Amino acid sequence: MTDTPGNVVLHVADVHKRFGGLHALADIDLQVEEGQTHAIIGPNGAGKSTLLNVIIGKLAPTSGAVVFDGNVLTGRKPYEINQLGISRVFQTPEIFTDLSVLHNVMIPALARRDGAYKLNMLRALTKETAIRAEAEAMLEDVGMIASRDMLAGSLSRGDKRRMELAMCLIQHPRLLLLDEPTAGMSRHDTNTTIELLKKIKSRGMTKVIIEHDMHVVFSLADKISVLAQGRIIADGSPDQVRGNPKVQEAYLGGTH
Amino acid sequence: MHLFYLPRREAITLAVFALVVLTMPVWLVPFGAAYPGLMQKFAIFAIFAVGYNILFGLTGYLSFGHAAFLGVGSYTAVWSFKLMTMNVIPAMIFAVVVAGLFALVIGFVSLRRSGIYFAILTLAFAQMCYNLAYSVLTPITNGETALQLTMNDPRVLDLMFVEREAGLPSPSLLGQAMTGIEAFYLVAVVLLIAFYVAQKIFVSPFGMMLRAIKSNQTRMHYTGFNTRPYALTAFVISGMYAGLAGALLAATDPLAGAERMQWTASGEVVLMTILGGVGTLIGPIVGAWLIKYFENIFSGFNDAMLHRTFSWLPDGVQDVVVSVASRFVGEGWHLSLGLIFVLVVVFLPGGVMEGVRRIASLFGKRREPGGDGALKTIPAE
Predict the structure, then answer these.
(1) Residue-wise pLDDT tens digits, A20-52
(2) Measured between alpha carbons, how far is A105 from B187 in angstroms, rounded to an integer?
(3) H or E element: which one contains A155?
(4) Do B226 and A116 touch (CB under 8 A)?
(5) Which DSSP state fits A125?
(6) pTM assigned to the model
(7) Could you give the ipTM of this predicted complex?
(8) Which residues pair with A10 in a beta bridge?
């Protein structure tokens, strides 16, 4: 329905969101290009989480639409959105705490292969050698192969995040959404997470990162949109955004 | 080969389990429980519990209405005896199908909610089924007198080949009447098949999806799974197991009453599962056996037997001990069961199976220094 240029994967078109009298999002227009890492930053309360929830269909916009690769996302269920090729990393890792690390990573791989529902009851899991090998390769990739038989719930916060990333990456999503991937992490865990994100950046996957930590964003993003009080006040490359006086005032000035 | 394949560990479990079940008439003798009627119950309620655990143990959905499917299975089986044939095979098939259909409808509605609301919905449906059976649908269920065989049942299939005989017929398999020890072996073989199917589910990707639903439903949604049909499939499968158990109850004693569907019966299977160990394959079976043993053997103890047991004590002490102990046996068997249940839930939240695991790991530690089982590499299949 909305006209999307060839290389735009995700188009947030004229989105408004009101909660009663509060104008949480106003006039949001975002275009995320294929292969880019697009960061959305802004101080607390700027509307970042609302925007993310609108993108993934958890909240319906008051007006406007979100279009992913020609499909309108608004009104679709989370599993349908995932099956279209969007994976998501949560602020607090959402993982299967009482399953092993290996199984945690095998499950999303099965979702990609088998779809939203398949009665796969006669085959033994141990015979799923292809999926298993894929999961092990992915764990190798994120440096977690040693803990593959551990219970996911017993991992450290940073390892949970790494595993959640592996769970998303194994689906080869066309778009990866990261909601404050380093929130609540120690400096050490933050740095390992940034290193990992840099590593996967080279793979040409489109990513949208929601962050309030500028340090994380400037080293990762190709493009940054700054959100303040529900509006996009600046848009551009990290250098352009850094030099923008409006950003200095609204964002940096606003926090201290 | 995929169709019948089981990983080695599960295959060994199945073999040991088969041995245990088939030798019941021997090893139950010292427990005073080796009579066919009780052993049939052991096997039938084991099937019920194994099926219930596929829903509760794997997906975490706590149903308080599974006795409804047991009752539906019993009624269906008795009607199959009355209308068609005394052969138990068609009775079992019909019971499984009809119970599955009931589970499909009830599950479809109940699974719109989770947690306590799901439990209440299943309870409400089960009580509706109970009341329908007890009063509203008396032409089908024969109300409080219970559905029974009569002398002039049509039994169309049987009477095509054989003349009507004097006296009520009994359920049969290949011309062999299903009573006493023969009936036990029939039920035991059905239990082994049911156990094997449950094992297949446990080790399959489908089984892992059910565990994942229990673990984190949000992540399942954002991973691309539509969880409701998965949960519904588990619900229907467990309903079918309950229907099968109901059919076997009718096959060993061809009569079906509404009390089989009452909420206490639904609660009993929850107790069995928790007592034995939620989410394990063997646990619910152990739970079922413990509860049925208590119900049938403990309840039979009386003061005279207690006096004999404690006869080695001096007279005065003996009277005191017997009068205290008698509160916990006979009519009071619920009291002992309740105590055991409380002790297990408080000290072994994983049920009897957790106790077994703890004991096993005590012995295991010696052989495997620092044995952090989680870090072991999985042997190649």
Answers:
(1) 888 889 889 999 998 899 999 888 788 888 898
(2) 40
(3) none
(4) yes
(5) G
(6) 0.90
(7) 0.89
(8) A32, A68
Together in a domain, A165 and A208: no
Query: Tens digits of per-residue pLDDT, B86-111?
Result: 999 999 999 999 999 999 999 999 99
Cα maximum dimension of chain B? 72
Asked if residues B212 and A99 have their Cβ atoms less than 8 Å apart, the reply is yes
Domain housing A117: 98-172
CB-based contact B74:B249 (threshold 8 Å): yes
How many CB atoms neighbour CB B302 within 10 A? 12
Question: A122 and B200: CB-CB below 8 Å?
Answer: yes
Number of neighbouring beta carbons within 10 Å of residue B365: 11
Name the residue of chain A whose CA is nearest to B234's CA: A119
Number of domains, chain B? 1
B376 three-state secondary structure: coil
Interstrand relation of A206-211 and A175-179 (parallel, antiparallel or unpaired): parallel
Instruction: Read off the DSSP letter of residue B378.
Output: P
Is A107's Cβ below 8 Å from some Cβ in B? yes
Nearest CB neighbour to A111, from listed B200, B225, B374: B225
The domain total for chain A is 2
User: Cβ separation of A110 and B6 shorter than 8 Å?
Assistant: no
Cβ contacts of B334 within 8 Å, gap of 6 or more: none
Q: A67-95: string of b/e by CB count within 10 Å (b at 16+)?
A: bbbeeebbebebbbbbbbbbbbbbeebbb
Residue spans of beta strands (DSSP E) within B219-272: 255-256
Check whether residue A152 and residue A168 sit in a common domain.
yes
- Which H or E run contains A211? strand A206-211
